[in-house]
Specification:
By secondary structure, the protein is α+β, with helices and mostly antiparallel strands. The chain is built from ten helices and four strands; from the N terminus they run H-H-H-H-E-E-H-H-H-H-E-E-H-H. Strands 1-2-3-4 form a four-stranded antiparallel β-sheet, with no helix packed on it. The longest helix is centred in the middle third of the chain and has 68 residues, at 138-205. The radius of gyration is 41 Å and the shape is elongated. The N and C termini lie far apart (98 Å). The relative contact order is 0.11.
Length: 451
């Protein structure tokens, strides 16, 4: 008895863990299946890798251009417009469809239509098929017009990319300038803070008057105000750049990491004719002239009469002798409208397209010449500031600091020297930014279309 109880007890103690193990195994198996399905779905639809915070916090101009090409909203809208123009080619090249018509007549209000099947009803049924045949190369002219307009839309996309890319470069250099201005202001504010602390110690020792400490404190407070103002300016330029590259949610993390472009990176001035004629705005304007020429020819072809041919079958139940076939031909008669207005409108649009081409040519020429002039002036200014004025101001500031520490000069001379150095540093940073922007404008003005 005891042995059997022990055996039963032993079996029971083993059976319960086996059931629990089975349930656990089934649960793990279901989890693995679900995880596998999730992994498969994720592998089937990979997402685009977002811009990492590391890229944004150390954003180079090259990386910004890649983000711009993928996320810029104006560029995406121009791409959709070009895609729609491509679809217009399919619409213009499609031939007209035939028309099928079914008519019933000779329905007697007294006798009715009779009984029986639908084919036995006492009605006269006519089935007709008509087809429009266009003449005068209308479909070919419509297709050519749509193709030129699609080429214009593609070059419009290139022009939008050219202008938006220039905006990107300008926004990037604005951010870089704001960072440098903030660094200069922060350094100057720290220098004034140290001067205030030193002046307070000298005042307590009786070496200087209280008025000198007040003057230093005034300049220190001005420097702190400049820091706050330049921090707000930095945030403004971060938002502007973030909009262009589509990272508005992380705008405050943007930090431009590139250096200022050197003078050696400046392109050669001059304006080859091929460079001017290959700009996307010039190509788009020229394509619109070609489209307007085809549209004028299409308007003139309206005077070529189209033909509409038809085929019909007439059936009346119970009267097989009268079941018959027939055909029709329809030709328009230009008795009142000779399409003079359509032709005149197309000719006016052609003249407008040619005038617009001249306008775009003049604007492109002026943009290139202005970019050359501004680049030359900016390069000369940055050379003068970096090679002459800034080293001289730094040398004078060091001499004034040394003399003031030894009591050789007064506080006003020191403050004047610091203000001068601070102003020249800001002006040098602005000059470098102007040179970089002028360089970007020169390259943008001579950008050619990839098509």
């Amino acid at each position: 008895m005891n042995g059997s109880r022990q055996t039963a007890s032993g079996v029971a103690s083993v059976s319960r863990p086996a059931g629990a193990f089975k349930q656990t195994f089934v649960g793990l198996l279901c989890c693995c299946v679900l995880l596998g399905m999730g992994a498969g779905a994720h592998a089937a639809s990979p997402e685009k890798p977002p811009a990492t915070l590391e890229h944004l916090e150390h954003l180079s101009l090259e990386r910004a251009e890649k983000l711009f090409s993928r996320h810029n909203r104006e560029l995406q809208a121009a791409r959709r417009n070009a895609e729609g123009a491509e679809a217009d080619i399919l619409i213009a090249s499609a031939p007209p469809n035939p028309d099928l018509s079914i008519g019933t007549s000779r329905i007697s209000p007294r006798m009715g239509i009779g009984s029986g099947r639908l084919t036995d009803k006492r009605v006269d049924t006519v089935i007709g098929l008509t087809q429009l045949f266009e003449r005068g190369n209308k479909r070919e002219l419509r297709t050519e017009t749509a193709r030129f307009l699609a080429a214009a839309a593609r070059n419009d996309e290139g022009e939008v990319a050219r202008q938006q890319k220039l905006r990107l470069h300008l926004a990037y250099y604005d951010l870089l300038l704001s960072q440098e201005r903030l660094e200069i202001a922060t350094t100057t504010a720290g220098l004034f803070e140290k001067s205030v602390q030193a002046a307070e110690r000298r005042l307590s020792a009786g070496d200087i008057a209280a008025t000198e400490l007040s003057r230093i404190r005034v300049d220190a407070l001005k420097a702190l105000n400049d820091v706050r103002s330049m921090r707000a300016e930095l945030e403004h330029h971060q938002l502007a750049l973030a909009y262009l590259i589509g990272t508005g949610a992380d705008a405050k993390r943007l930090f431009a990491s590139d250096n200022w472009p050197g003078e050696s990176s400046s392109p050669q001035t001059g304006m080859p004719r091929e460079m001017l004629e290959s700009r996307p705005d010039m190509l788009a304007a020229r394509a619109r002239v070609s489209a307007a020429e085809k549209n004028r020819d299409l308007a003139r072809s309206l005077r070529t009469r189209d033909i509409t041919a038809g085929l019909q079958y007439e059936r009346f139940p119970g009267d097989a002798a009268n079941n018959s076939y027939g055909f029709t031909i329809s030709i328009p008669i230009f008795a009142r409208n000779q399409y003079t207005g359509e032709i005149r409108r197309a000719e006016i649009e052609l003249e407008a397209a040619r005038e617009d081409l001249q306008r775009v040519h003049a604007l492109a020429l002026d943009e290139i010449r202005r970019a050359d002039s501004e680049l030359g002036a900016a390069a000369e200014r940055v050379r003068r500031l970096l090679d002459v004025l800034l080293p001289m101001a730094e040398k004078n500031a060091q001499a004034a600091e040394f003399a003031h520490e030894r009591g050789a000069t007064g506080i006003m001379d020191l403050l004047d020297t610091r203000r001068q150095l601070y102003a020249i540093r800001l002006e040098a940073a602005a000059a470098k930014a102007d040179h970089a922007k002028a360089l970007a404008a020169r390259r943008g003005a001579t950008t050619t279309s990839p098509d």
